[in-house]
Amino acid sequence: MPMYVVGHKIPDSDSICGAIALAYLKNQINEPAVASRLGNIPPETAFILEHFGVDAPELKLSYAGEEVYIVDHSELTQAPDDIAQAIIVGIVDHHKLGDLTTATPLECWIRPVGCSNTVIKMMFDFFNVVIPKDIAGIMLGAILSDTIIFKSPTCTTADIRCVEELAKIAGIKDFKALGMEMFMVKSSIADTSARDLVMRDFKDFNINGYFIGIGQLEVVDLSVFDEIKIELEVGIMTLKNEGYRHSVILLLTDIIKEGSELLVVSDDITIIERAYGKAIKNGRVWLDGVLSRKKQVVPPLQNTFRIREGLM
Question: Which chain positions lie within coiled-coil regions (predicted)?
Answer without folding.
Answer: none
